[in-house]
TrEMBL record:
Highest taxon listed in the record's lineage: Eukaryota
Protein kinase domain span: 11-262
Listed InterPro entries: Kinase-like_dom_sf, PAK3-like, Prot_kinase_dom, Protein_kinase_ATP_BS, Ser/Thr_kinase_AS
Keywords per UniProt: ATP-binding, Kinase, Nucleotide-binding, Serine/threonine-protein kinase, Transferase
Organism: Leucopsar rothschildi
Keyword Protease annotated: no
E.C. designation(s): 2.7.11.1
Alphabetized GO MF terms: ATP binding; protein serine/threonine kinase activity
Pfam families, per the entry: Pkinase
Binding site for ATP: 41
Name assigned to this protein: non-specific serine/threonine protein kinase
Length: 286
């Protein structure tokens, strides 16, 4: 799956952007093109990490779309997998949410861009399974792209449903929490939670312990806006369509792209000013 060659010579000027359980992500310079790239260095010693790494490469390489982060190359370096992809200069949607407040038109724009990516994935029988603000990347030009495909599932005619519980508890769909078989609509639930996150600044139960979160989701069912009257009927209806407890009544990505809240959202290019001001806030906090 990986390329042969000398990534140490190809990429220089490494600067760490963040780290997680898998390893770390760096900004680097591709000496052959002069362009900035992002490089995810994944430790393969951990259990499951090899499977996740292969999963991520295949999902990104085989599913090219304007709303999915572009895969560039991958290498094996001293027991680490290096995954090179396009560098998104606006950071994560989470970074933006922690710095500025989003208007409804902007939330609609982000949802539309994510839904375009999800509709593409779902039409190709891929479930992301970890949709949340820290896995959505943004560009200074207002572009919005899905990232982090380590947990995604590839469906087939013989294997048309999944049952393993993966993802991040606060964003996990009710049917997954209950241990039921599930399909692509788990991503729609997670998108609905991300909608709540954009409105309220954080996901429901985000401060609770993981096990407690799962208990609360199962007991309380779909979470609700804290102050519903402060928001438009269109936004409330959109979230209601995403967060249906019955997955058969929950709307698909294709259906939600026609929802008036999404259809009336701002153009993606208008997010540029928001992302630039979020960057300025982050710089000031440093």
């Amino acid at each position: 799956i990986v390329s042969l060659g000398q990534p140490m010579k190809k990429y220089t000027a490494f600067e760490e952007l963040g780290r997680g359980g898998f390893g770390a992500v760096y900004k680097a310079l591709d000496t052959s093109t002069g362009q900035q790239v992002a490089i995810k260095k994944m430790n393969l010693q951990e259990e499951m990490s090899e499977e996740m790494a292969v999963n991520e490469i295949l999902a990104m390489r085989n599913n090219r779309n304007p709303n999915i982060v572009t895969y560039l190359d991958s290498y094996l370096v001293d027991g680490q997998l290096w995954l090179a992809m396009e560098f998104m200069d606006g950071g994560t949607l989470l970074d933006v949410l922690q710095a500025v407040y989003l208007e409804e038109g902007q939330i609609g724009a982000v949802c539309r861009e994510c839904l375009q990516g999800l509709h593409f994935l779902h039409s190709r029988q891929v479930i992301h399974r970890d949709v949340k603000s820290s896995n959505v990347l943004v560009g200074m030009d207002g572009s919005v792209k899905l990232a982090d495909f380590g947990l995604c599932a590839h469906l087939s005619p013989e294997h048309s449903k999944c049952s393993s519980r993966v993802g991040t508890p606060s964003w996990m769909a009710l049917e997954m929490v209950r241990g039921e078989a599930y399909g692509p609509k788990v991503d729609i639930w997670s998108l609905g939670i991300m909608g709540l996150e954009m409105v309220e600044g954080e996901a429901p139960y985000q401060r609770e312990a993981h096990v407690r979160v799962l208990e609360l989701i199962e007991r309380n069912g779909p979470p609700k806006l804290q102050k519903p009257r402060h928001h438009s009927a269109l936004l409330r209806d959109f979230l209601w369509c995403c967060l249906q407890a019955d997955k058969d009544r929950r709307w698909s990505a294709e259906e939600l792209l026609q929802h008036p809240f999404v259809a009336s959202g701002d153009p993606a290019s208008s997010l540029a000013a928001l992302i630039i001001s979020a960057k300025q806030v982050q710089e000031e906090r440093r």
